[in-house]
Amino acid sequence: MTPVTALGQSTCSASDMGFHPAELAAVDLASSQFGVLHVRQGAEVGLNARAISRRLSRGWRKKHPGVICIPGYPDTFEQRAMAAHLYAGPDSLLSHRSAGRLHGLDGIPTSRIEVSTPRRLRSMDLVVHQRDVATIRRKHFGPLPATTIEQTALDLAAVLNEVSLEIALDSALRQGLTLVNRVTELLDNIGGRGTPGSSALRALLEERAPMTRPPESVVETHVLRIVRASDLPKPVAQHVVSVPGSSDIRVDFAYPDLRIAIEVDSVRWHSGLRAIHRDNRRQNLLAAQGWLVLRFEWDDIVRRPEWVAQQILAAIETRVRQLQLG
Q1: Which residues pair with 236 in a beta bridge?
Q2: Which domains does the chain possess?
């Protein structure tokens, strides 16, 4: 079978198909940009406006004013982001939720592409943040320029609710993309009074500063929010319990002095019998060491946080009474 190019035509002989060298150069350029290019880029390789207009009548299409999409490439987030960057100008960069997605953060809702640019743009398809980007450091994801992870955290604080912001921040820390002190330094330098979301971000950073490790999952972040909202004692995350004659057991959360362990079964319902048997053995070993194990499902954590807090509080009160009675 003869291979097909992004133009949807045979590659057997470019000259036979009547492709102009400039046209091929434009297609090659677009292939490095997720299938899109700006008309000024076409002009730089010799493809004039008349040639582009001719191709628009044969399958090429406009993505934004001045931005052309070549057929044969999937409509992906990266393609939409690239088209937005080309439209917003060479000094623009992906920011806010779009930068969060490029950095691979959890908790980022699907939304329109967001760009930061000094240009004054109007678009029904994009979220445009008009600001001076000359002093903003950037990170490149292939041809896509975006804000650094620290700047992204500060920008997200202005557009996300506190739950999503906390999940995104913990995701960045967990993946080793940044450190608490790096985000704090940026916040101190440019996130002063009046900066949207700065107070919420600062509170989260101050809480995480003494942590030996960030929460290891979105589940942990939700549990810590429940504990904080209910004024419960802060448990130790990922606590390791030594079991004589067996391998150590690491539990999601623990109150070591009270021997209370908290486990969250986020995927238990499809884990299979082997995982269930493993969890039962773990729980039996912990019980033999005098541990009280509380198990919660993901739905409990996100849909019934008050009930989860009540169960934890009841377990703490029971353990305290037992210790008082000797």
Answers
A1: 254
A2: 21-75 (no CATH), 91-208 (no CATH), 218-324 (3.40.960.10)
d(CA 320, CA 326): 10
Give Cβ neighbours of residue 221 (< 8 Å, ≥ 6 apart).
Answer: 166, 167, 170, 215
Percent of the chain with pLDDT over 90: 54
CB-neighbour burial class of residue 261 (10 A; exposed 0-12, middle 13-18, buried 19+):
buried
Instruction: Provide Rg for the chain, Cα atoms.
Output: 27
How far apart are the C-alpha atoms of 83 and 68, rounded to whole Å? 8
Q: What would the pLDDT profile of 144-155 be if each residue is shown by its tens digit?
A: 999 999 999 999
Local confidence band at 10 (pLDDT 50, 70, 90 cut-offs):
very low
- How many angstroms separate the CA atoms of 64 and 61, rounded? 9
* Average confidence (pLDDT) over 197-217: 84
Cα gap 233→220, rounded to integer Å: 15
Q: From residue 256, how far is each of 164, 289, 290, 295 by CA, in Å?
A: 30, 12, 11, 16
C-alpha distances (whole Å) from 286 to each of 60, 164, 238, 258, 297 are 64, 34, 15, 13, 19
